[in-house]
């Protein structure tokens, strides 16, 4: 668990939020927030985690970063509220009173929130282990019985923006042409709506579409190996350029869209999820 003094010292490396517990605006938010609100419970839970490795992942040079402990609490609250996208979080940091209470008035940009989401990836398993160890210590569970459950979760990618191999290659060609023109400082006559507007955005888009092309190659190979009665026409094999790993299948509303299958190992004797 976190040692308060040590963590407080590490927090000095980060930018102070605009509000404190003494600020009139924060106190107003606090008074309007129910005492049993989910956001309060999550804030208390995060205080029990060892966030040292996360804090140490910041170099502490240049412009001070925003407090990662506050951002983490916000991310967990948003996920519990079924709002998994940083684009949604960007609105909530300005419009949601529970989120403003959590962040003490911080208003991170959309780009910062996407970067922070990606930064968290290596730490989730360890934090889950900490929670499970605490549950064992407090005898909430014996961790002896579990069931494997799976569920399909919609990817962020739109089901209306799936590409076949020909269209994917056409878009890759357009990206390469515009990126080359941008690097040479040459104007372009026409820019499709789906295309990034800056050289940095085009470079990122080029990498993402290259990854989608790799996934498409794997799907075409797997499709070709199927029996003829199960094989699709090559132009009907599709991929999402923004979520290429997502499988294409029917969702619970019978819509055909990119999905991820999430497997959960649930404890049979408590509400805990083991893995």
Keywords for this structure?
mainly alpha; 48% helix; three-stranded antiparallel sheet; 275 residues
- What is the radius of gyration? 23 Å
The biggest beta sheet reads: 3 strands, antiparallel
What structural class should be given to the helix and strand makeup?
A: mainly alpha
From the spread of the alpha carbons, the general shape counts as: globular
Tally of alpha and pi helices = 11
Distance between the termini: 20 Å
Give helix % range: 40-55%
Q: Which range does the strand content fall in?
A: 5-15%
Describe this structure as you would to a colleague.
The chain is mostly helical and 275 residues long. It folds into 2 domains: 4-140, no CATH class; 165-239, no CATH class. It has helices at residues 4-11, 24-32, 38-47, 52-56, 68-80, 86-95, 97-103, 110-119, 124-137, 165-184, 199-224; strands at residues 146-154, 247-250, 256-267. Strands 1-3-2 form a 3-stranded antiparallel beta sheet, with no helix packed on it. Strand 2 and strand 3 (256-267) form a beta hairpin. Helix 6 (86-95) packs across helix 8. The longest helix is centred in the last third of the chain and has 26 residues, at 199-224. The model is unreliable at 1-6 (pLDDT under 50).
């Amino acid at each position: 668990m976190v040692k308060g003094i040590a963590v407080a010292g590490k927090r000095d490396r980060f930018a102070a939020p605009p509000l404190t517990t003494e600020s009139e605006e924060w106190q107003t938010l606090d008074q309007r927030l129910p005492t049993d609100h989910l956001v309060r419970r999550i804030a208390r839970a995060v205080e029990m985690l060892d966030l040292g490795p996360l804090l140490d992942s910041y170099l502490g040079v240049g412009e001070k970063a925003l407090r990662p402990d506050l951002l983490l609490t916000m991310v967990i609250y948003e996920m519990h509220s079924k709002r998994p996208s940083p684009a949604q979080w960007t609105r909530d940091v300005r419009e949601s009173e529970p989120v403003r209470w959590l962040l003490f008035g911080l208003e991170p940009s959309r780009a910062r929130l996407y970067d922070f989401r990606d930064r968290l990836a290596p730490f989730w398993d360890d934090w889950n282990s900490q929670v499970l160890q605490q549950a064992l210590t407090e005898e909430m569970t014996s961790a002896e019985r579990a069931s494997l459950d799976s569920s399909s979760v919609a990817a962020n990618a739109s089901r209306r923006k799936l590409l076949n191999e020909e269209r994917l290659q056409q878009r890759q060609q357009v990206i390469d042409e515009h990126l080359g023109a941008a690097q040479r400082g040459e104007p372009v006559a026409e820019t499709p709506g789906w295309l990034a507007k800056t050289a940095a955005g085009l470079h990122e888009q080029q990498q993402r579409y290259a990854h989608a092309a790799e996934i498409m190659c794997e799907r075409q190979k797997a499709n070709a190996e199927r029996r003829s009665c199960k094989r699709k026409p090559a132009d009907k094999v599709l991929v999402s350029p923004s979520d290429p790993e997502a499988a294409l299948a029917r969702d619970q509303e019978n819509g055909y869209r990119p999905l991820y299958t999430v497997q959960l190992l649930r404890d049979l004797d408590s509400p805990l999820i083991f893995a």
